[in-house]
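fwd from M.: "can u put these together and see what the complex looks like"

so here's what she sent:
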Amino acid sequence: MTEELTDNTKAALLLIGPLISGRDTRAQDLLTPGEFKRLERRLEELSREPADLISSDAASLIQECGDAVSSDRLEHLLGRSFLLGPVVESWQTRSIWVTNRSDSHYPGALSSTLGEDAPALLYGCGDRSLLGTGGLAVVGSRNADPDAMAFAEQVGSQAASSGITIVSGGARGIDQTAMLGAANSGGNVVGVLADGLQGAVVNRDNREVLMQGTLCLVSPYDPNAGFNVGNAMQRNKVIYALAQAGLVISTDLGKGGTWSGAKEQLDRFHFGPIFVRDVPGGSPGLDGLRAKGAQLWPNPSDQSEFRQLLEYRRPVEISSQDSSLTLF
Amino acid sequence: MKFDRQRALQLLQEGTGSSTAQFREGQEEAIRHIVEGRGRLLVLQKTGWGKSFVYFIATKLLRESGAGPALLVSPLLALMRNQIDAAERMGVRAKTINSDNQDDWASIETQVANNEVDILLISPERLANERFREGVLSNVGAQVSLLVVDEAHCISDWGHDFRPHYRLVERIIRTLPANLRLLATTATANSRVLEDLHEVLGPDLNVSVGELSRDSLTLQTIRMPHQTERLAWLADRLEELQGAGIIYTLTVRDAYQVAEWLKSRGFAVEAYTGDSGDLRESLENALLNNQVKALVATTALGMGYDKPDLAFVIHYQTPGSVVAYYQQVGRAGRALESAYGVLLSGAEEGDINDWFIGSAFPSMHEVSEVINALEDNKDGLSLYELLAKVNISTGRVQKTIQLLSLESPAPIVKQESKWQLTASKLSNEFWDRAERLTSLRRGEQQQMQDYVDLPFGQHMAFLVNALDGDTSFVVPPKLPELATTTRVETSMAAEEFLDRVNVPIKARKRWPMGGVPHSGLKGTIADHHRANDGRALCHWGDAGWGSLVQDGKYTDGHFSDDLVTACIRLIKQWNPDPAPTWVTTVPSLNHPLLVPNFANRLALALGLPFYPVLTQTAERPEQKTMENSSFQAGNIYGSLSISTENVPPGPLFLVDDMVDSGWTMTITTWLLRSSGSGPVWPLALASAGSGQ
C-alpha cells in the first residue's frame, strides 16, 4: 500500500509542504502553487526535474533556477531535508501515502483532466487503484433535509450494486451519507478531504472499509491541515476530476461550496455531465444549476441504465493557459 | 564545503586540552569526509577511539562555514557529559534534550530558534514525541546540516541491543535525501550488523573501521554459583586490586545489595542504577576522581562513560551477549598499561537473562487483549482507560503499546490522548522478528556461557573473534590470574549479611488512576488512611530466608519458628516509631490459619496481643492473578469485613506472608484506619516486589 517515496515527491514536500507544522509555519515561507509551477517550468527548460534539487550536486542547479525562485529561498526550503524523515515516517505509520504529480503512480485521471494544475502533492490512505475507476461524484450541503439525505443514501447504494464508484468530499451531511450508502452495500468509495486526513484514517467507520480495500481517502492538503474554506472549495475540482459525472443532491442558490463547485463545472470546466436531483416542487439552488445546463437525474431504474449515465467522454482538454485554474 | 586541516587540528588540541595532540588514525579522514559532504559515513571504532571528536569538530567546521546545526541521536545521553565538556572547550555549543530535562526544553527551544545551538543531542524516543516534534524539531530540523546516529548497531535487528525506537531512526534515515550529511557511529558491529547497516544507509556508504583488541586488558572468568561466594570474593579481591573500577550487576536490586555488603566491609563504594536520578553525575565524578573504590552499577552506567584510568571491571553475573560484555569490560584500562576484566558467573544469571529475553516482546495474548479492547472502543482509549479493561500489568501494557505503535504501518496510533486502531493489521513480520530476535539472543546467551568456560589466556581472542574482528592483534594477558578462593571468615560474614537483608515495602500514596472500581476511592490516599512504609523479611525465592518462606507456604502449610526469630531480629533493627501495641493479619479464605498462626507466635514473642479483627467475606480470585493496579485494588475492595468494635486505637503490625503490588496492604490499612486503628506498619515474610 505504501510505496517508496520518490525523490520528486521529496523535493515537492520540501518546497511546498508544511512538514512538521510548528508554531510559526508562515515563517517557513513555502512556495505557493504558482511559484512551484514556475519552478517546474524552469526545470523543464533545463531538462531537469524537482528530484535533481535534492541530489548531492544541486548547488549549481539551484542557481540556475534563480529566475523562477530566488536561490536563497530554495536553499532555505531544501535545507529542511531532515524534517522529511520524521514527518514521512509518521504518515507511513498511519498508512498514509503521498505522491507528486510527476510520479508514475499519481492518479492519471487528475493529471489528464487538470494538467499542470493537478495538485502537486496528493496524500492518501487506502487502495489507490480506486482512483482510476471513475464513478459518480455526489455532492451536496452539510445540512440537507431528510429527503435529500435518504436520496443520497439510496444513490450510494444503487451505485454500489451497479459497480460504480462514489466520489465525494467526506464532509458531514450529503457527502458522508452517500459514501456510507455505497460502503454499506459493498461498493467502492473515494473520499476527497479538504482537511484532517490524519484523523480520518483512524476513524472507525472508515477503518473497516479501508481495510477491505473499498475506500480510498485522498487529500491535496497536508494530513495535519485544519479546516479552511478556501481548501474546501478547491478540492471540489478534484472530486469532479476523479469522477465521470457529477450529481448535485442539494445546494443553496448562489452561495456555498456545492454551488460554486458545480457552477464552475457548468460555466467553465466541463469535466463531465452534471446532474441535479429531481425535487418535486423544485428547489431554488438545483433549479439555478439547471438553468446553467445541469440535467435532471433520470433516476435510473436498473444497473445498466445507471452505468449508461456515466458513459461519457470528456470533450474539453483544459488549456494550461487558463489562469483561473491556478489553484494548487 | 572546504575542509581546513589546520583549524581541525587546532580544535582537537583545544578539545583535548593538549597543545601537542594529533589525530588518531582515521579521525582526520572522517572529519574531512563529512565536511566535504562526500556521502554517508559509518565509523566503526572501539570505545575510547574518539568518535565524539569526529562529530564535534565536523560540526564546528560546518558551523564556521555558516551551515545549520547538527542533530545527534543517541540512546545514552546522560553519559555524554565528558564529551560535552570537551565540545565546550572547542566552542561547540551542545545541548541535550531528553525526558529528564523537560523544564529546560523551553529555553533550549528559544536558543535553537535563535541559532545559538551548534549540536542538539536527543534520544531516539524524542523523535516519537509530539511536543518535541512540534516545539523543537520544527525549528532545529529546518536547518540540520549533519545528522549523527550514535550506537548505530541498534539500527540492525541483529544488533545485540534491541532498542525499539531505533526502528523509527531506521525509517527516518531511509527517507532522507542524499544531500543531507549523515554520520553513523558504533563500537560494535559484527558482519551481520554491518550488512544491515549497508542496507539501511545505502550502497554508497563509506566505512572507517579500526581493530578491536584491547592490549591492556587481562580477562578472567570464574564460575561461582552462590551469591555468598561472589560477595566474599569481591570483598577479598577489592583489598588487593589497585585503582578504582566498576562492578556490574544484572539487576538494580543486586547493585544495591552488593554495594551495601561492600560498604559493610568498609569499602568506599556506591550503587549506580537507573534509579540513581540526580545522583548520577556526582557518582560518575566520584569514580572519575577516584573518590570511590568502585561503583556497583547496572548497565545504566554504560556506553559513553569515559574514565581512561579505570583499573578493573568486574561482573557479578554474566551479561546477555558478547557485545554487551565487550562494551562494558572495554571501559577498563583505556589509558593504563594493564587492567582487569573479571567475569563472575552465578547460578541466578540464567533466570535473569531468560527474563530479559522473554519479556522483550509482548506475548500474543497481550497483543490480542490490547487490540480487542481498542476494537470494542470506537473512540479509542487512553493508557489508563486501557489498564482498567485489560488484566495485564502496566509495564506490559506500555511495552505492548510501544512496540505496536513503532511498527510501520502501525496497527495502533495515538490520536491526541487516545490510542486508536489504524487501517492496518499487525503483520506477521512482527512475530517473525520477535522469534528471530529471541532465538538470536538465546544463541548470544549460550556464547557467553562458552566464554565463562574458557581457560585463562584465551578470553580476548574469543571476544574479538565473536565480533568478527582480526585476532592476529591479540596479545597475551599482562597481569597474573586472580585467586579464585575466598577467606572463610569473609564467606561467613557474607552468609550472615544475606540473612539480614530485608526489603522495604513502600506505602502507596495514591489510589489507582481512575479510582478503585465501584468504591468511590480515587485520587490521593488521605494521610490518616495511608499505611506507613513497612518491611518484608526477604525477596520471594531468594537465597537466605526466601526458600524457607516458600517451603512454609507451599510444602509444610506452616511457617517455621526460625522465621519468627528472623522477624523479631528485623523488627529490632527496624524499630518502627510509634511502636506497635498490637498485631493483626490480612485474612484469607484459602489459607485461613497459615498467617494467623504465624502472627500469633510472633505477637507472643513480641509480648503484644494478637487481634484477628478482619475476615474475608467473599471468595475472590487469587490476588497474584491480578496484573495491574486497577484490577488488584478492585479485587480486594469489598471482599473484607472488619469487626469495628474490636479495633484497638493503638499502632499495629499488619502481617501477611507475601506482598507484591501492595494493594492488599493498602486497602486493609484503609479499612483498619477508617475503623479507628492507630498507624499501620505492614510486615510481610516475603516481597514478590514487581512493585509498579
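replying to her w this: Chain B touches chain A through 43 residues (CB under 8 Å).
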